[in-house]
From TrEMBL, chain B:
<dbReference type="InterPro" id="IPR021163">
    <property type="entry name" value="Ferredox_Rdtase_adrenod"/>
</dbReference>
<protein>
    <recommendedName>
        <fullName>NADPH:adrenodoxin oxidoreductase, mitochondrial</fullName>
        <ecNumber>1.18.1.6</ecNumber>
    </recommendedName>
</protein>
<feature type="binding site">
    <location>
        <position position="407"/>
    </location>
    <ligand>
        <name>FAD</name>
    </ligand>
</feature>
<dbReference type="InterPro" id="IPR055275">
    <property type="entry name" value="Ferredox_Rdtase"/>
</dbReference>
<feature type="binding site">
    <location>
        <begin position="414"/>
        <end position="416"/>
    </location>
    <ligand>
        <name>FAD</name>
    </ligand>
</feature>
<feature type="binding site">
    <location>
        <position position="26"/>
    </location>
    <ligand>
        <name>FAD</name>
    </ligand>
</feature>
<comment type="similarity">
    <text>Belongs to the ferredoxin--NADP reductase type 1 family.</text>
</comment>
<keyword id="KW-0496">Mitochondrion</keyword>
<feature type="binding site">
    <location>
        <begin position="177"/>
        <end position="180"/>
    </location>
    <ligand>
        <name>NADP(+)</name>
    </ligand>
</feature>
<feature type="binding site">
    <location>
        <position position="56"/>
    </location>
    <ligand>
        <name>FAD</name>
    </ligand>
</feature>
<feature type="binding site">
    <location>
        <position position="235"/>
    </location>
    <ligand>
        <name>NADP(+)</name>
    </ligand>
</feature>
<feature type="binding site">
    <location>
        <position position="100"/>
    </location>
    <ligand>
        <name>FAD</name>
    </ligand>
</feature>
<keyword id="KW-0521">NADP</keyword>
<keyword id="KW-0274">FAD</keyword>
<dbReference type="InterPro" id="IPR036188">
    <property type="entry name" value="FAD/NAD-bd_sf"/>
</dbReference>
<dbReference type="Pfam" id="PF13450">
    <property type="entry name" value="NAD_binding_8"/>
</dbReference>
<keyword id="KW-0285">Flavoprotein</keyword>
């Protein structure tokens, strides 16, 4: 069960959606949904900006994303890839405005509590950015700071409904 | 110099036309979103008044925060992809060096394009409106100061900066409590620490002058209290971490003690800020957590200080016989329970700070375009009147095909990521409207053949030349500092 950290009382609803998704769909690990993009003229390499390596047979690690529309996608990836790399390599809606250098919060993800404690603790600079993330939860992390490893094989992360960075002043 | 005509010859594909005014993060993220998400083919043009793109990313972000400028890579990929003739669906053009409202009227864009998005940011300064603010040497607004050290062609060689005697600047006052105020504090208090600045893209001209200043004391002066400071924890932490260079932060105990702030009443970010300040205010060896003991101060101790100063109203800027600032008169404020602020102007509450340089960092102000009143486009105080990005007329109706995104839509608040989200939301509305609207015409075009401007290719050359110059000077980039240099930069160095 996720506890929601309410920031100025405005974020709980959005966090709840992601928390709900993580809670209600534990058995859907293997289900993958495909979304179609409407691109009638040409496919564009611009949309495909990740550079993911293909894992060697037997060394695949699994990660499942719960997307904003509630659908799930599971990928087999290499050790060492960051969640931001993986999301971008598969054209998921995750921006990395600062290029994955822990200087913004556009790659905010909500980690399944079952996996959260297996992650190394966030550093100050990551926490400073999480302070500004929209829909912050107690298991929020930045996708650019989580590297795939055997410890978190099978990890499940939800994309928050919005990634807007807010601070208290936005509400005053 | 190249003068490329961008008359768009219609091909087999009937693209709807979109013009975006401004190429900073809001304009470029709006373009990016349209090109990424629109199901119908678009011809997107970004108009920029400078010959070069990226607005506040290039001229606002602090030089020692290169990672924040990484959004430019996304913009570049986007521009390259959609400028290429092989991309059959959408088309993208950048037009630099043209001011909408001057060389080309906003009316002309509105008449010619299926949608126009205003993303030109906040181009003015909020003022203190006190005696001495204008015309005193050594008094600058944060926008002027930041543009100057970032090499903006309007300010890089401005005599107000280059003729100022920096060698006399020891005490600095900064009015304001946002991240820009902290950026400026960092630049000034660490001005002589070459390892921070010499490899960045800071204007060399500015850095050489700044280095001359024997800055010892920087006061950040706020009208309200610690709770109301607007900066973010990352920027504040950077200031505390300068202690390894002998630079110490201070807050008077009457404005800050850990016990003043009940953690249950505040959010996570604020509670983290309280912990950060209370830990860093302790002597190095008395701190409880290792993350506040990363690098000790030098054995010689602290010799430079920055200070968060609260509950003051600036009253008057005082100058010497040569017209240069020498002090600032202020009074104490009382913060009432209903959050209202009361300046106390009796003699016991008035004081004078000796300062050699004063930067007013009160936020950037949105300014209406000259045609707004004629076209009846609404403007609310510091931003364009709009409903979810759709611009409103002065009588509150939706102005057809006209949108606003970024700071000029909402006022100058938020980091690049919040601007990005705003641009995406406005972009979605533009797409929504374009999908259902009839196209204006097949041959929408604005003839630029007789107007000097830059294209994306021109910017690529300028960029290459700036990077090349940078390499020679051991900097990430050496910007061209005047309009002439920028225009010539298209050709070579």
């Amino acid at each position: 069960m996720l506890k929601i950290v309410t920031r100025a009382g405005h974020t709980a609803r959005i966090s709840n959606i992601a928390a709900h998704l993580l809670r209600t769909s534990p058995s859907l690990l293997t289900r993958t949904t495909t979304t179609t993009r409407f691109l009638p003229f040409s496919t564009s390499s611009f949309l495909n900006h990740g550079h993911l390596k293909k894992p060697k047979p037997g060394e695949e690690l699994k990660i499942t994303f719960i997307l904003k529309d509630g659908s799930q996608k599971t990928y087999e990836v290499c050790e060492g890839e960051t969640i931001l790399d993986i999301a971008q390599g598969h054209n998921l809606d995750m921006e990395g405005a600062c290029g994955g250098s822990c200087a913004c919060s556009t790659c905010h993800v909500i980690v399944d509590p079952d996996y959260y404690d297996a992650l190394p603790e966030p550093e100050d600079d990551e926490n400073d950015m999480l302070d500004l993330a929209y829909g912050l939860t107690e298991t929020s992390r930045l996708g650019c700071q989580i590297k795939m490893s055997k410890d978190i094989d099978g990890i499940r992360v939800a994309l928050p409904q919005m990634t807007r960075n807010v601070n208290n002043n936005d509400f005053s | 110099m190249s003068f490329v005509q961008i008359r768009h010859i219609s091909s087999q594909i009937n693209r709807k036309t979109v013009s975006i005014v401004g190429s900073g993060p809001s304009g470029f993220y709006t373009a990016y979103h349209l090109l990424k998400k629109s199901p119908i083919p678009l011809n997107v043009t970004i108009w920029e008044k400078l010959p070069v793109p990226f607005g506040l990313s290039r001229y606002g972000v602090a030089p020692d925060h290169p990672e924040v400028k990484n959004c430019e890579e996304t913009f570049t990929t986007c521009a390259e992809e959609f400028s290429s003739p092989t991309n059959q669906k959408h088309k993208f053009s950048f037009v630099g060096g043209i001011t909408i409202g001057k060389e080309i009227l906003l009316k002309e864009l509105l008449d010619n394009q299926d949608a126009v998005i205003l993303s030109y940011g906040c181009t003015g300064d909020r003022k203190l409106n006190i005696p001495g603010e204008l015309g005193t040497k050594g008094v600058f607004s944060s926008r002027e100061f930041v543009n100057w050290y970032n090499g903006h062609p309007d300010f890089a060689k401005d005599k107000r900066f280059t003729d100022f005697d920096w060698s006399k600047v020891s005490k600095v006052g900064i009015i304001g409590n946002g991240n820009v105020a902290l950026d400026i504090t960092r630049v000034l208090i660490s001005n002589q620490i070459d390892e921070i600045w010499e490899n960045t893209d800071i204007s060399s001209l500015a850095l050489n002058l700044l280095r001359r200043a024997p800055v010892k004391d920087v006061k950040l002066i706020a009208r309200r209290d610690f709770v109301h400071s607007k900066f973010t924890n990352k920027e504040l932490r950077e200031l505390w971490e300068l202690e390894k260079y002998g630079i110490r932060g201070r807050i008077d105990p009457k404005f800050f003690q850990k016990e003043m702030f009940d953690p249950s009443k505040y959010d996570r970010a604020f509670n983290r800020r309280v912990e950060m300040c209370s830990e860093y205010l302790k002597p190095f060896n008395e701190r409880s957590k290792k993350n506040y003991k990363k690098a000790p101060p030098p054995s010689s101790g602290y010799d430079k200080f920055w200070e968060l100063d609260y509950l003051k109203t600036p009253l008057k800027i005082n100058k010497d016989d040569f017209g240069a600032i020498n002090s600032l008169s202020l009074c104490n404020n009382q913060l009432n329970e209903d959050n209202s602020l009361q300046p106390l102007k009796d003699v016991n509450n008035i004081m004078t700070y000796k300062v050699d340089l004063l930067i007013t960092s009160l936020g950037y102000a949105g300014v209406p375009m000259p045609e707004f009143s004629k076209l009846s486009i609404g403007f609310d105080k510091d931003h364009i009147a709009n409903k979810q990005g759709r611009v409103l007329t002065s009588s509150g109706e939706i102005f057809p095909h006209l949108y606003a995104s970024g700071w000029i839509r909402k006022g100058s608040q938020g980091v690049i990521a919040s601007t990005m989200q705003d641009a995406f939301e406005v972009g979605d509305r533009v797409i929504q409207d374009l999908v259902v609207s009839g196209a204006l015409s097949l041959e929408n075009s604005i003839d630029l053949s007789n107007i000097k401007h830059t294209t994306w290719k021109d910017w690529e050359r300028i960029n290459k030349n700036e990077l090349l110059r940078g390499k020679k000077e051991h900097k990430t980039r050496s910007k061209f500092l005047t309009f002439e240099e920028l225009w010539n930069g298209v050709e070579g160095i």
